[in-house]
């Protein structure tokens, strides 16, 4: 028996989830408020017979492993390890190399944890840290804030931490691997007696936590700027720290991000701390570096909605632009918080002035394209064809990243109005950008092994397919209008394509089908479980109502997608002078319009 199956036999899903949230009996199942998104009416269901869970609000669902993955923000191997240790199940003995890497990581985490405590102790008690204490007092940080974020101070000494960590039983070479000691490169250095010295000296220390709250590295800030000395010094890349993976403050923000279904990304560590201290806890920091795809994909586990609060100077606009393009390719809904320079230079300064002002700025954040339109046209000379070309090039490259053709059409019209040109001139340029941008964006998204929050469209598709699987025999003839193209999710398309011919022939039996299709079986069971609980939501629901409401809505959405594609094809045919082709496409569009009227859902 596989360890995962043995674990499933030993853990009751109701007991496991009941340790995290309050479950209430609802017939044969259990119901609760979803722990993964904010809601007032319980839509989170747990089935003790099927040992699965599902939320009708955000669309998440699965077994005990999927729950731990979502709750703890880990991947399957870590979820397996967590539940194995809970049950006493022995996993397959790891290879020697894997065990060596795991042991090294444990050592590095231990050294970093001790380092954080060392720096905290120096800040609290040492006379050499008086300037650091005065600085933090002046910035207005409360004592509990210092404890929460474990702020500390590295004294201006080349060997104090070196002496501390060796007395704790660790090798200097291990502290080098952790990024806390530096080994002399062979050149003379009078301050180093035996070839090693402390990396961080005379700096205010910010521990960098991973998503689980473990100290993975540090950022050190000097308190008095001096020529030739970097203001900030970060830990080097180590087996447990990578600047392209870590987001400052995420370990404390992840619950609030899920609760608000939104994350705010700022630049500096101090900005993050001040936001959290003022009660704005869905905030994380990029630590002053350009955001990487891996960081955004980590945020994607918790929300699809992101707001950037970067500087609005030239460098800040470029950093924001890169982050926006990457976030768009990963399917985020994006807004920009642009703090007017007259108010403050950054979130920390604005909140110190008035938390209400920061609240206003976050609430009034602009759609990223509206922000860029305003920023680019603010200083544009419309009398200059060169500047018009530059503005068009900048904005069309962003329009091409929009996934919805209606959004692209809306902003294309807006760009044409602002530039004072015919929209037909801009359309070929947009199509060129679509060709150049589309492929890389799809590759980035499709290469990821997980998809967290489901869209409204996918939730609708799952409901319809679940009804189809469970009740097709009870409503004969009602499902014949369904086609594979009505589904946009590849897995749901695969299930429908496999089942619909059997349904049509009358040879479909659920249990034998599940036995022969082990790959699709877990997803099908989840779809049916969701529908069974949909029907139990209240006496006003019945099968006929559900079938009409959701099947009609699915066909309506499918027809609208086809009509959007035809609209673009008609425009391109007209632009190229292919009037006969445009007429045929228009006729097809009119047919879809008449078909659409059948499926209007009030």
Structure explained in plain terms:
The structure is a single chain. The chain has about 600 residues and is an alpha+beta fold. It has four domains: about 5-85, Alpha-Beta Complex (DNA Primase, Chain A); about 105-235, DNA primase DNAg catalytic core, N-terminal domain (Alpha-Beta Complex), CATH 3.90.980; about 250-400, Dna Topoisomerase Vi A Subunit, Chain: A, domain 2; about 455-600, DNAb Helicase, Chain A. The strands form four sheets. A five-stranded antiparallel beta sheet has the order 1-2-3-4-5, with helices on both faces. The longest helix is centred in the C-terminal third of the chain and has 33 residues, at about 545-575. The protein is globular and about 80 Å long. The protein starts with a helix and ends in a 6-residue tail after the last helix. Mean pLDDT is about 85; it is low at about 185-190 and about 440-450.
């Amino acid at each position: 028996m596989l360890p995962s199956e043995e674990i499933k036999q030993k853990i009751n899903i109701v007991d496991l989830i009941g340790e995290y949230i309050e479950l209430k009996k609802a017939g044969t199942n259990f119901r609760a408020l979803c722990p993964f998104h904010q809601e007032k009416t319980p839509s989170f269901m747990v089935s003790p017979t099927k040992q699965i869970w599902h939320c009708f609000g955000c669309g998440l669902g699965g077994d005990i492993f999927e729950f731990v993955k979502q709750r703890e923000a880990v991947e399957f191997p870590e979820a397996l390890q967590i539940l194995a240790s809970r049950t006493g199940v022995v996993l397959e003995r790891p290879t020697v190399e894997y065990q060596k890497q795991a042991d090294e990581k444990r050592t590095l985490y231990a050294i970093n944890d001790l380092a954080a405590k060392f720096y905290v102790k120096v800040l609290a008690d040492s006379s050499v840290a008086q300037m650091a204490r005065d600085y933090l007092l002046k910035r207005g940080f409360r004592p509990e804030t210092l404890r929460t974020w474990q702020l500390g101070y590295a004294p201006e000494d080349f060997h104090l931490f070196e002496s501390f960590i060796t007395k704790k039983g660790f090798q200097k070479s291990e502290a080098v691997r952790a990024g806390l000691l530096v080994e002399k490169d062979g050149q003379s250095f009078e301050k180093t007696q035996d070839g090693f010295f402390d990396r961080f000296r005379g700096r205010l220390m910010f521990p960098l936590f991973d998503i689980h709250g473990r100290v993975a590295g540090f950022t050190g800030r000097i308190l008095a700027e001096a020529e030739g000395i970097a203001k900030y010094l970060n830990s080097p890349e180590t087996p447990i720290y990578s600047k392209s993976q870590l987001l400052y403050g995420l370990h404390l923000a992840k619950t609030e991000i899920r609760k608000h279904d939104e994350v705010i990304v700022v630049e500096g560590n101090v900005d993050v701390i001040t936001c959290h201290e003022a009660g704005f806890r869905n905030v994380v920091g990029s630590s002053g570096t350009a955001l990487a795809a891996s960081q955004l994909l980590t945020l994607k586990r918790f929300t699809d909605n992101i707001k950037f609060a970067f500087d609005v100077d030239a460098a800040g606009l470029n950093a924001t632009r890169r982050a926006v393009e990457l976030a768009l390719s990963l399917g985020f809904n994006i807004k920009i918080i642009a703090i007017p320079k007259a108010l403050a230079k950054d979130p920390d300064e604005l909140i110190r002035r008035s938390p209400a002002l920061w609240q206003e700025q976050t609430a009034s954040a602009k759609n990223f394209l509206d922000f860029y339109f305003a920023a680019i046209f603010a200083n544009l000379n419309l009398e200059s064809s060169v500047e018009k070309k530059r503005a068009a090039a900048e904005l069309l490259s962003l329009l091409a990243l929009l996934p919805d053709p209606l959004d692209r059409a809306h902003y294309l019209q807006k760009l044409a109005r602002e530039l004072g040109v015919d929209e037909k001139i801009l359309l070929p340029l947009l199509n060129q950008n679509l060709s150049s941008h589309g492929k890389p964006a799809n590759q980035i998204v499709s290469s990821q092994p997980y998809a967290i929050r489901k869209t409204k469209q996918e939730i609708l598709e799952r409901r319809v397919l679940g009804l189809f699987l469970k009740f097709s025999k009870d409503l004969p003839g009602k499902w014949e209008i369904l086609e594979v193209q009505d589904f946009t999710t590849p897995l749901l398309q695969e299930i429908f394509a496999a089942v619909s011919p059997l349904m049509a022939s009358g040879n479909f039996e659920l249990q034998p089908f599940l036995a022969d299709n082990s790959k699709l079986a877990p997803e099908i069971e989840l779809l049916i479980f969701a529908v069974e609980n949909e029907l139990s939501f209240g006496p006003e629901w019945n099968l006929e109502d559900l079938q009409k409401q959701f099947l009609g809505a699915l066909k309506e959405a499918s027809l609208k997608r086809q009509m959007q594609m035809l609209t673009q094809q008609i425009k391109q045919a007209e632009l190229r002078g292919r009037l006969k082709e445009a007429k045929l496409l228009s006729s097809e569009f009119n047919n879809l319009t008449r078909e659409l009227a059948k499926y209007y859902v009030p």
